[in-house]
Amino acid sequence: MSAVARWVAAKVGAAILVVWIVATLVFFALRLSGDPLEAILGGPGSQAGEETVQAAIDAYALDRPLAWQYLLQLKDIATLQLGDSFARRQPVVDLLAAQLPRTLALAAISLAVAWIIALTGSVIQAASRGRTGIVVGAVMRGLEIVASVMPQFWLGAVLIMVFSSGLGWLPATSAGPGAAALVMPVVTLAIPIAGFLSQVSRDALDDADAAPFAVTARARGAGEVRVLLRHTLRHASLPAIALSGWAFGNLLSGAVVVEVLFARPGLGRLLQEAALARDVPVVIGAVVVVALMYVVVVTLTDVVELAADPRLRGRTRALRSPEIVVGA
Amino acid sequence: MRSPGVSASVAAGAVVLILVAVCAPALLAPGDPLAVSPTEGFLAPSLAHPLGTDESGRGIYTRIVHGARASAGIGVAATAIGVGLGIIIGFVCGLGPRAVDAALTRVVEVLYALPTLVMALLFVAVIGPGPTSSILAIGLATAPGYARMVRTRVRQVARSDYVAYAQHEGVTSTAAFGRHVLPNTLWPLVAMITLGIGQAIVWVSALSFLGLGAEPPSPEWGSMLNAGRVYLSSAWWMTLFPGLAIIATAIALTILGRRLSKG
Amino acid sequence: MPQLRRAIPVLAITSAALLLAGCSGAGDSPPTGEPGGAGAGGTLVYATGDAEPTCLDPHVGGNYPQGLISTQYLEPLFGRDAEGEIVPWLAESADVSDDGLTWTITLRDDISFTDGTPFDAEAVKANIEHLQDPDTASSTGYLSVKEVSDVEVVDESHVALHLESPKSSLLEVLSQQWSAMQSPAGIERGMEENCQAPIGTGPFVVESWTPQQSVTMTRNDDYVPTNPELDHDGGALVDALEWRFIPDAATRQAALASGEVNVIDNPLPTDIAAAEDQGLAHIDAPRPAASNRIELNSSQAPFDDRDVREAFIRAADPSPGIETLFAGTASRSFSVLSSAEPFALSDEELFRTDADEANDLLDAAGWTSRDDDGVRTKDGERLTVRFPVSTNQSTAAEQSLFEQIQANTAAVGFDVDLQPTDLSTWYGALAAHEYEAVSAPYTTVGPDVLRILYHSDGTVPAPSGYFANNAQLTDPDLDQLLTDALATTDADERADLYTQAQRIVLDSFTVLPLYDQQNHFLTNGVEGVTTLHAISTPTFVNAALTD
Questions:
Q1: What is the DSSP-derived secondary structure letter of residue B44?
Q2: What's the CATH code, domain B6-33+49-262?
Q3: What are A29-56's pLDDT values in tens digits?
Q4: Which of C192, C247, C432 sits opposite A263 (nearest CB)?
Q5: Minimal CB count within 10 Å: which of A26, C146, C200, C513?
Q6: Cβ atoms within 10 Å of B43's Cβ, excluding its own
């Protein structure tokens, strides 16, 4: 089998694995409260009629043995048969399909902005040497830490208070036309990611900076910025590219908060409303979609990584996750 | 161990302060965080109330100090669940047969990649909202991260030279485990836990913000933040200060954790 | 070229992002129609903080958000004026037989639905049958026509409703939005389609619904002026109405202040108080029927003892909290009925605060010992009051008020266990009787709400487990008064009977009235916004944009 075929096979295998694991997770989660039927219908006070109850039992095979239910769950999730939301009387797939593109767009833009912020920070830091360099470095490190632990709902609320209620520069909600309404949600989402990317980039930058090729370049008289742009930046961005997969997951978490705070329609807001209403079929559907999105994004970042780092070609790579200590 | 730098010392000092607030809040804030005084609601920061009052006239400063126990408690509880599960899974992977390790690790990697909040919402939707489910949800969602770390470390140590020498010299596996594997695995875990508690506090307060946590009248920081956000334009101190408390705690724990992990 | 290769990762991600953004997301804004254009024309933007309806047809289910939005495109048979009198709307008049079992309603003959179907007796029959059909799953509208056993089409403009038992509140419930008239042809399209865009006779027509974002309605150019609040002869003045869903109060307020939206509901009390300074107009329209109150479960300990109930009420002291938390926008109520009801009986002295009296009452009732937390105990039992709170229904200010009541009653030895929960768990707790105190809003029209809430029939749960009589009152005298009041259409007799009934309810100390059901609106850049006096929903038939 050629390297490409092996690579594709590995990706497909990884995708199947994700689906299986998510299905099992969902199966386990659904029975966490002890009564899956109650959870599916929307909690103890759902006041569901007899017909609705029977429909739920049929859909999830709750009157059959546990093993059968598990297999049914696997099949349903693998074929994306996500059932109906009993609370909203609509198929789950329709609800998700309507909201997914908006959240994806928001996440993609935020990721790009986070990248730009992180790389700008790296450039600034590399360009300042000596005493200023140390001060800048310390400030950067401080900002990075603050950015990565700042609760997004707090950041977003403060931004609204300052830029919307206070200065009136930006609209508070998303329904206003065009780019202005995107600024605050994107910034709120991007900053924590930028914090992490920046830390990772800087570590890699420091390593690359001390590497032989950089030393040699300086010895041949190349200026700092030249060294940075031609050599070290690419090395610095490698771990950050790998992190983009994880960053995407973090963005989806953040999207829940940001969409609620800025009244943007999207998957995150759908997820929060569903959790509040205990509309479990929708929540399960959202989890499945998120997992699949993750697979897609990681595959994409693998492609980008292979394009950027020729050393990686010719070896198959499994699903990558960052070595960073905190969760998505 | 290297001598601690300036930032680590400051962080350690902050953590000590937080510990005092957790164990003996009355030392730092003698007032009663639960005593309502409706006529004194929405007062801006002043000498009498350094950080202002909330909607029921309770001092924000007093509530933040007394709330450290609730918030830290939630953070610790969630982390405990995550770490507990993580240790079990991590040791099984690290010390078990290769097949088990390979299979479980793949599963853990996938679970680790799923966004924490999304997973937490799944659990909360099923169990129902509330502080207990928030703790459980965040604990379960962060367990894979700890499992990964424990497993890596365990494998490293278990295959290290000094363990091999010990076994060569006839030390039993259990003794080797107790004297070498365990201590060398758990110390980095301490660093990770420190970082994790800070993150857990942030996650739980995010759930409170979304309307899925909190229980009155407890002065838990996340629910204070959630309550204060409603009055953001008029009583900004109700949101700003609890938020700063959360951020400061998370930063202090992060710096400390990083410092510890560097040995 | 080396530089290009280096730039690939950044370029790839950025272009993917921009591509996605271009295809959807940022570009996917619905017809936003900037509010603008003085006088006639333009799009009025309304932002609601209530939950987004799952169906735009208020026959299905029947909650307040549905009432709010359907006011714009559906009209009921009757309306109500500021004095609480029934006025004609789609119907001209009504006569009742002597035995109270047959109501003959005369309809207007000059109205059609926006799909061309004529509004006539057949249409009324189809609507009432739709409400009674179990497949419609109507909760509120169903209750209003429960007693109707048969709808007889006398002729095109006359319909006779035959009742199983007399119902003097029939016209009042027919003025509610949840029994408004829809096109029978529209109903026949099936629930899925009808939920997306019900067809009515109102000043606006539903054009499209983008879930989680907004509903767009356009002016009905063929509108026949029937709305009792109309101040001109004609239909709506604006071209279109955009109904946005913005659940977050602060975001909603910011959108209003910046001019992005023209009208919001559920404003924060502090924002209402600051409205005038900010150049915003304020509309205060308390909802009818019952006031916002706390009910004590008299069917189990400790509130099965009237003295303990009275002690709780003496200690609660909600007035100072109401004053501060609501920034003066809500006034304390001492009546079970809303101030919008003409028959409301108010008794301030009965609800006086007196902590000493509370302590004496509790001592006399046997709750004399205290445990380490200061909570009173009796025979080993703590004086615990479980108080589930639905965070969907209770505003932040109200939840804070409950916290204060918790602290106030703790001072005399009560242990109030406030349990904020989601709506579903809340219903579950009520159905299972796992509560000692609860605040359950109920919106309908007219004093008959007393029967729904306090007649002993209300303790019998529906198949779903729901019951409305949270106080668990089972007083035969009260039952008789309420049944008699329902049977008589004589206004004076009704007034007298309902006054007596309220006296019994108040004296039982099972209810602690707080304030009117708050229903505030803030407007910016629009004039002519009025509220209907049925369920206090705003109508935009007179509205015009001002800047």
A1: P
A2: 1.10.3720.10
A3: 888 777 778 777 776 666 666 777 887 8
A4: C247
A5: C146
A6: 18
